[in-house]
């Protein structure tokens, strides 16, 4: 008798253990049967049923629906997935049917169905072994705000060990609770506290509905959280503008620093300076084309190879211009302006004849691709490297001017050309090398600018006016003044753009500089010396 009871108990336990399997299979069959329709509401409900099964076949079917490859037979309600080779497999079993079905119709989707698919795929991958996929799934559920995903979120939260993924799961759960109509006020207030930690624009949009339609308690909590988030967003926006301004300032610094040398030492208004930048950019293009065809494995080193070549090419062209034209026009700034403007037109047409008038593609190495998030700030690697590169060029040039014999001679010529000549300094030689140095720095600026701007014969014209503004505002020939002016104008430009627009913002800056030099004609940091002060 006892043995019979024990046998019955074991049999009942086995049946209880196996019972969910046919039920789950029945649920999967029912969900597939519901999705075989043209009714969007039924399709959306079927997607939720498929996600609730947690079956791998459901995930494959939903992915096929996303790709537009899920079909059904109106005759027998069979659901099939179209493979890459054009054949069909049964979505329920994953096996090929005995004969290829005919008369199939695609399962239709609209925006609501797409959101349901995203939420369903998200809930199905919440327990994926890959943390990146779990994080992506949590973000998908957060955006869909699907309350039916709450059980899956609770299960995933109980097993999650990664802090970042766990935070994203908690935020997705909070969004689902706030979207659920029958959630209690206490649950909604707790969810609002969780959402406040996220603090982005999506959270503000979600809280806006609660501020309008929630209960008094929920409204107060939503308004308080929204006010905190909006203050944080405003602060982040200001910091982001500062970062954008610094990156723009680094571009202006690279474009203007060579001009500051030539203009400051020789008093030459070099309108061909932008073309030196352009030559550096085209040198980068030529180097990358050579590496693509001959040594593709070295492509990530293309910028490192292009930097010295761009310096030599632009520097050599600068020396030729100085020896062939500029040295006959010293002391006549108007003539140097006209002559170098003519040289700029010649260089543009030469490049246009060699490379064509169309923009040329210059690729970014792998270490300059992508972006990362830093406490809510989006920072691209390309801009970050340009900021670092601009400061490195500034430091290297400062070292040359302060710690080398050539730098000493250059500063002597800047402060008093006649006295330097009397002391045995070959001022024509200094002029030539100085012009070559400024042109070479413009060339390596072109290497950097090729990563953020179109490489075309007109590249230099985009920066020549801004470069003169930086040099005049900072103080002619003063490197520290050029650095401060470039960063100041870059940040000011980014703060003016949202209110005045890009064009009007530049006009306002130009008006400011005109008024400023009326008060301080020598700029922020004026050079000192007998010849300068005379």
UniProtKB/TrEMBL annotation:
Residues 1-25 form the signal peptide. It comes from the Bacteria. Keywords: Amino-acid transport, Cell membrane, Membrane, Signal, Transmembrane, Transmembrane helix, Transport. InterPro entries: ABC_transp_permease, ABC_UrtB_bac, BCAA_transport_permease. The chain crosses the membrane at residues 242-269, 298-321, 384-408, 429-448, 468-492, 499-517. GO terms for cellular component: plasma membrane. Its main location: membrane. It is a multi-pass membrane protein. It is found in: Cell membrane. GO terms for molecular function: transmembrane transporter activity. Belongs to the binding-protein-dependent transport system permease family. LivHM subfamily. This is Urea ABC transporter permease subunit UrtB. It comes from Alsobacter sp. KACC 23698. The gene is urtB.
